[in-house]
Amino acid sequence: xxxxxxxxxxxxxxxxxDAKKRAEFSFISHANLGxxxxxxxxxxxxxxxxxCERKLKGSVALACPYGRPFSLGKxxxxxxxxxxxxxxxxxVVEVDGSRIIYTGDFKLGGSKTTEPGEAKRCDILVMKxxxxxxxxxxxxxxxxxxxxxxxxxxxxxxxxTPVLLANPLGESQEAVKVLGDMGYRLSLHxxxxxxxxxxxxxxxxxxxxxxYRAKELEGSILIVPPYARGGRVVEGIEEKRIAIxxxxxxxxxxxxxxxxxxxxxxxxxxxxxxELIGYVGLAKPREVYLVGGFSAEFAxxxxxxxxxxxxxxRPSQLRLI
Length: 321
Prior knowledge:
This protein is of the alpha/beta class. The chain folds into 2 domains: 2-135 and 270-320, 4-Layer Sandwich (Metallo-beta-lactamase, Chain A); 141-265, Rossmann fold, CATH 3.40.50.10890. It contains 8 helices and 20 strands. The protein has helices at 46-51, 141-156, 171-181, 190-201, 232-235, 252-259, 273-283, 295-304, and strands spanning 2-4, 8-10, 15-17, 25-27, 41-44, 60-63, 70-72, 75-81, 89-95, 98-103, 124-128, 161-166, 186-188, 209-211, 221-224, 240-245, 263-265, 287-291, 309-311, 319-320. The longest helix is centred in the middle third of the chain and has 16 residues, at 141-156. It is globular. The termini are close together.
């Protein structure tokens, strides 16, 4: 029932999930996908379409809010929250007596800026397992936030600018929400500022932030995307300490060396290993198909727990799973 070729295809339908090559009809799970092919038609939540509208020029975009089922040929379709970033969704497809769920990155616990993800019973589960190794278990959020605040306080009190490296979409909005609500002054890179404004359009509130202005940086925390680490904005600050916010901070020394950071905090908008296991346990599928860098390893873990799990490798030609 599942075919794979640079994306997942539901056999005998026109439906693809996060297709990387041009498709007639592709579901887009969230706006954080690296690149989007010029599909003929795409379906996503209104939030996702707004966040990635620049990437979707030329595609007919169908906006579908959560919890509003509709029919596409013989298939019944519904989008449910994924908890990854604003507008991230899972797709539930009921066809030929089977319920299929596809989820890209997700987070059941949700966050300060997104709805919690939902896990539903299904027959076939296709899921991404970004942190699919047992060593990737995040510490409690409260603990990480406490450590982050201690880092910030230490250097602000000395007149040193804390610089936080965070994904322009996801971790950065979470940092702006948490730190801004605590009263810290925040200076945002233009890419992050633009995404925060879109979040606000959809009802997420933020405080104590503004777009980066060099002359107004004193006493503020600067938040920039990792790709700006070596740029003039960061390098132009004489007294600074740099921290990176990412789930990969569980590999602390490696991440700090790669990004030239003084500290790293494991803040992520993706499910960790335990949450991935928990999702499968709640969904109770008869078949599990996995995508992501650790799909083979995670499949072995699930098999030991009694699930019929298989990784979806990238084949040289289309093949039936």
